[in-house]
Amino acid sequence: MPSSAEQLHLERALHLLQQAGAMLPEAEPGSVAWLQGIVDALCDLSSRDALTGLSNRRSFEMVMAREVDRVARTGESALLLMLDIDHFKSVNDTYGHGVGDLVIQAVGAALNQAVRPMDTVARIGGEEFGIMLPNCQAGFALTVAERVRERVARLRIPTGQFQDELSVTISLGGAFAPQWVRSSPLLWMERADRQLYRAKTDGRNRVCLEVHHETLVSAEEKGMLLAVLPQDSEQV
Ligand SMILES: Nc1nc2c(ncn2[C@@H]2O[C@H](COP(=O)(O)OP(=O)(O)OP(=O)(O)O)[C@@H](O)[C@H]2O)c(=O)[nH]1
């Protein structure tokens, strides 16, 4: 391990951050605070999608894994929405890739504005996005998903061509994290994706949610579920 900051080769990291337009730390170059700032900026860069500034797929999967774990322990409701811009290929084909990128950016910003600060919006890839909503009651899921859908449908996106303004629609699929069972982010995503597929085949510009029955667990049962079993404590 290098004994001083001068021995570290940071040029590539600095170049990368500058290219990405990231803020460089203001602290004295070479100081611990400065190095920490570089590390933080690199972490931020690796967890964000370059086009929209939203979380990228990798960081979204990490957020989902934490949530799967939390729901398994607490039994709280958490909703995953997967969504995709409808007929996006025709936007690219008609207006070009540059306008397509503008549409992706506008949709990403609208999604962020339609949910709470505690929710996570991510660009999963291409024109597909994911939204993780912790602590979202089943009875409220359709209202949230419809609010997101309507917010995007109301967008008027300037194309810069012939004063055209574009509007797009999205299809959404949603599924809840399984309560009291340890599952995986991938399985959760697959369930939401199946609903998204249903929304597409049912005609697009709509929400399809997996039927969810909340499991009501009494305080006593909860205590029994969370109690450390004798064999668990022996393994610790
Ligand atoms: N501009 C732009 N286009 C992208 C990007 N990523 C993927 N695409 C395009 O998104 C389009 C997706 O097309 P399809 O998968 O056929 O989906 P669609 O046209 O939206 O049709 P449905 O989803 O069935 O409604 C393809 O033409 C991709 O090239 C990107 O970052 N920027």
Automatic annotation (TrEMBL):
InterPro entries xref list: Diguanylate_Cyclase, GGDEF_dom, Nucleotide_cyclase, Rev_trsase/Diguanyl_cyclase
SUPFAM superfamilies per the UniProt record, alphabetical: Nucleotide cyclase (SSF55073)
Pfam assignment, any one: GGDEF
Gene Ontology MF: a single term: diguanylate cyclase activity
Residue span, GGDEF domain: 76-212
PANTHER family registered for this protein in UniProt: DIGUANYLATE CYCLASE DGCC-RELATED, REGULATORY COMPONENTS OF SENSORY TRANSDUCTION SYSTEM
Protein name as it appears in the record: diguanylate cyclase
